[in-house]
């Protein structure tokens, strides 16, 4: 099926039907054959699907380069302000469909390949997912890059070119196992290696003050170790191919590939030990930080890509403008979470130590250039680093951080704004539990603007993690509610719905999300409801085929598809969903003849390798699925499916098939969420708490078109402050929940190991810090309201259509416009 519908592709269809030769198709076919022969080294008769993928990708890439060059030339010659987006993650997924769609070449490529006896869908399926992210943070970065290109904003995304990225998840006997995600095993046809773009990244050593001729002194960092950062560029094509930006990823290299003297002495392993240590930096995303070595590697990664990126953008600025004094006028740097927060100290080091600038103007430039996006309120996710580790690994940066802190605290004292109680709360050094550097505080002080990612999250930032800093600098925090690119999450992921929208609303809907509002009057039209339901049914049938192929579970497409897909974490409360699944299972078994709504529970997500409780939750989901799916009493009424190795491509298959979207995090703990937006865009109805962007989704789609349950943020705060994290009371007060806990305790779902889920039972009973038990009954009631709506198809499809119709505001194009106008101060085209 076509991934995108637009005027050019409609013309291709007309020509195909009339059997007229198409010069564009013929030219593209020849380009593919040329790449297959001279770049891949294959003949058409012996080529495999992957060979055709590489040849097609290279042919597409050739059509990007001229536009890319023109975009760069315009940015430089027109002296347009550039945006630099620093993110440890870029979850870009497969690029062939996205790029063909944005260039308007999907049908051209389909016909060209068909003429060669090749199926485009088979070719697209062999492209590996670029495993450069963990979840929402990395996917948001990818959406933002695509929207920046679509809006014509000169932007470069900076990150790490992980050799293996996030692990590939295998589920064996219900347990998660991690194996390397070798996405580069066959190369990457989209990227350009820039072997000439190399920057030294230094670690360790000592700092001395070198006297200068004018009587001052200059800090000189004598590093103990130097690693090279080598650039790889991937073009990011905007909608309709009008502008192309770049994703520049850094790969770590040792200055010398081998120590010959050591090798010649017979120590062959030792001769490349330094190389292994250097390359470990870009080997894998999020190495476990459960050990001191893991913590050090994580910090090395963060500094590595941040330093390389800052050095690179400084070189570019000097080449175009000649004077670093104007950096803030021509560059806007966005720090995506605290991972690149070391940029505050590193930019100061580069300006002061490397370019001889005085402290005060360097600090003004740093604060005028950097901006910081906060993504979490969870204390464990707000990065801090031990002072000892920082002093050993980045001694000059630690000096700079001390000085930033000193000058900041002194300025407040001189202004009469400092108190003994305030000082330890706003200091960059946390002295309460060992001396640690607060990276969020550092990013806040060094940023021009600090933004949250939903209205609720931003308000909570002001009231919690940055309460004291916000009181001192009340104009610094602003809100930029997240968004998603509709090109990927509607047009690419759901071509059936896209065709329906274009046929109903016209092609304007492809360019203007506000055009979706045209569906509102159609939401009660039985004929349109039938067409809307038909595209969902087709997507559910496709997902059912995928589930049968991957896990051998048969799903009924006529059942309600209830979907919970995201990173496995206790605050996201997959556990609450599983407990409700058990309760539903027990209810069906207790009254098998009752009118139970057929329901399919779909789970997917990865747990961090060292997160034992999250991995146990995955095991519980799979054990519940094993029991439920084998029980003939509930056959036809309940199925549970855990789909392994959740990634972008799997999400693109699941989201268009979802009837119900699970967004059930503990209120006040999810910064925003973007999965909630993707589901609603495709017409899934949300069941969720008033958390993150759920609040704004409710406001846009209407309170009558979403199922809200559970404690509010304020009520959660009161419960946790008052010691309400014990679940004993809630369990005792709810016979249904008590029955679920009894089933877990008795080993009903783990007869071979009856004590397997005792840690879950104990945590919920004695330390339910995510208030799963407190929200259980409210959640159960919300799910029964969902059942009631499902029994009324006209009401269900009206609500589903209204979700699609009213979600246009959550386009990442809107978010990026707000960044450009209010934070980056980058003029937009037109």
From TrEMBL:
Source species: Salinarimonas soli
PROSITE patterns in UniProt: PHOSPHORYLASE
Cofactor: pyridoxal 5'-phosphate
Listed Gene3D superfamilies: Glycogen Phosphorylase B (3.40.50.2000)
Entry EC number(s): 2.4.1.1
One example GO MF annotation: pyridoxal phosphate binding
Key word Manganese present: no
Membrane-spanning residues: none
InterPro entries per record: Glycg_phsphrylas, Glyco_trans_35, Pyridoxal_P_attach_site
Swiss-Prot/TrEMBL catalytic activity: [(1->4)-alpha-D-glucosyl](n) + phosphate = [(1->4)-alpha-D-glucosyl](n-1) + alpha-D-glucose 1-phosphate
One GO cellular component term noted in the UniProt record for this chain: cytoplasm
Matches recorded under PANTHER family: GLYCOGEN PHOSPHORYLASE (PTHR11468), GLYCOGEN PHOSPHORYLASE, LIVER FORM (PTHR11468:SF3)
Pfam families on file: Phosphorylase
Protein name: Alpha-1,4 glucan phosphorylase
Keyword list, A-Z: Carbohydrate metabolism, Glycosyltransferase, Pyridoxal phosphate, Transferase
Entry keyword annotation includes Transferase: yes
């Amino acid at each position: 099926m076509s991934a995108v519908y637009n005027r050019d592709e409609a013309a291709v269809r007309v020509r195909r039907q009339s059997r007229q030769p198409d010069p564009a198709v013929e030219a593209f076919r020849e380009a593919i054959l040329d790449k297959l022969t001279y770049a891949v080294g294959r003949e058409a008769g012996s080529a495999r699907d992957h060979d055709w993928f590489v040849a097609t990708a290279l042919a597409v890439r050739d059509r990007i380069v001229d536009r890319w060059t023109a975009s760069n030339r315009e940015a430089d010659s027109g002296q347009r302000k550039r945006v630099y987006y620093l993110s440890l993650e870029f979850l870009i997924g497969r690029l062939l469909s996205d790029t063909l769609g944005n260039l308007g070449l999907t049908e051209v490529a389909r016909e060209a390949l068909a003429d060669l006896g090749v199926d485009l869908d088979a070719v697209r399926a062999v492209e590996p997912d670029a495993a450069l992210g963990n979840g929402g943070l990395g996917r948001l970065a990818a959406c933002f890059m695509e929207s920046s290109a679509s809006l014509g904003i000169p932007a470069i995304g900076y990150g790490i070119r992980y050799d293996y990225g996030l692990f590939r998840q295998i589920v064996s006997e219900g347990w998660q196992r991690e194996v390397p995600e070798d996405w580069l095993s066959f190369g990457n046809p989209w990227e350009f290696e820039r072997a000439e773009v190399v920057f030294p990244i230094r670690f360790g050593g000592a700092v001395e003050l070198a006297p200068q001729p004018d009587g001052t002194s200059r800090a000189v960092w004598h590093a103990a170790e130097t690693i090279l950062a080598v650039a790889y560029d991937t073009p990011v094509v905007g909608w309709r191919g009008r502008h192309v930006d770049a994703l520049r990823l850094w790969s770590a290299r040792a200055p010398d590939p081998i120590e010959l003297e050591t090798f010649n002495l017979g120590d062959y392993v030792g001769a490349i030990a330094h190389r292994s240590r250097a390359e470990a930096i870009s080997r894998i995303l999020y190495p476990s930080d459960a050990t001191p070595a893991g913590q050090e590697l994580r910090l090395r990664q963060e500094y590595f890509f941040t330093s390389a990126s800052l050095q690179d953008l400084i070189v570019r600025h000097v080449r175009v403008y000649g004077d670093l004094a104007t950096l803030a006028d021509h560059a806007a740097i966005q720090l995506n979470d605290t991972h690149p927060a070391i940029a505050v100290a590193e930019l100061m080091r580069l300006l002061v130590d490397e370019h001889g600038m005085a402290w005060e103007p360097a600090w003004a430039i740093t604060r005028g250039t950097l901006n910081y996006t906060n993504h979490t309120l969870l204390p464990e996710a707000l990065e801090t680093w031990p002072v000892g580790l920082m002093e050993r690994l980045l001694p000059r940066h630690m000096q700079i951080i001390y000085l930033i802190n000193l000058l900041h605290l002194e300025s407040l004292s001189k202004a009469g704004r400092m108190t003994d109680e305030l000082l330890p709360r706003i200091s960059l050094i946390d002295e309460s539990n060992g001396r640690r550097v607060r990276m969020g505080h550092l990013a806040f002080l060094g940023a021009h603007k600090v933004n949250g990612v939903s209205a609720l999250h931003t308000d909570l930032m002001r009231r919690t993690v940055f309460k004291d800093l916000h009181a001192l600098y009340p104009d610094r925090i602003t809100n930029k509610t997240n968004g998603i690119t509709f090109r990927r999450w509607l047009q690419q992921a759901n071509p059936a719905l896209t065709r329906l929208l274009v046929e109903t609303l016209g092609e304007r809907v492809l360019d203007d999300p506000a055009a979706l509002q045209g569906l509102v009057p159609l939401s009660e039209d039985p004929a349109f409801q039938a067409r809307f339901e038909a595209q969902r049914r087709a997507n559910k049938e496709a997902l059912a085929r995928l589930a049968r192929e991957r896990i051998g579970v048969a799903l009924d497409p006529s059942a309600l598809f209830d979907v919970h897909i995201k990173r496995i974490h206790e605050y996201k409360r997959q556990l609450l969903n599983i407990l409700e699944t058990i309760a539903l299972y027990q209810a069906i078994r207790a009254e098998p003849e009752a009118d139970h709504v057929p329901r399919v529970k779909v789970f997917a997500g990865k747990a961090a390798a060292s997160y034992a409780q999250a991995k146990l939750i995955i095991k519980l989901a799979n054990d519940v699925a094993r029991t439920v799916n084998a029980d003939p009493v509930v056959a036809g009424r309940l199925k549970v499916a855990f789909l392994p190795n959740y990634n972008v491509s799997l999400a693109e298959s699941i989201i268009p098939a979802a009837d119900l979207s699970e967004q059930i995090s503990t209120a006040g703990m999810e910064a925003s969420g973007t999965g909630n937006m993707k589901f609603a865009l495709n017409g899934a109805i949300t069941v969720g708490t008033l958390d993150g962007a759920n609040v704004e989704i409710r406001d846009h789609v209407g309170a009558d078109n979403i199922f809200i349950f559970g404690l509010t943020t304020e009520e959660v705060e009161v419960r946790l402050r008052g010691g309400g994290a014990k679940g004993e009371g809630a369990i005792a007060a709810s016979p249904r929940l008590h029955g679920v806990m009894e089933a877990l305790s008795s080993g009903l779902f783990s007869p071979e190991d009856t004590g397997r889920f005792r840690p879950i039972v104990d945590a919920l009973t004695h330390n339910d810090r995510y208030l799963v038990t407190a929200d259980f009954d409210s959640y159960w009631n919300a799910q029964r309201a969902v059942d009631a709506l499902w029994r009324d198809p006209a009401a269900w499809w009206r609500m589903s259509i209204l979700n699609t119709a009213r979600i246009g505001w959550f386009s990442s194009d809107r978010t990026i416009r707000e960044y450009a106008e209010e934070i980056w101060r980058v003029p937009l085209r037109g």
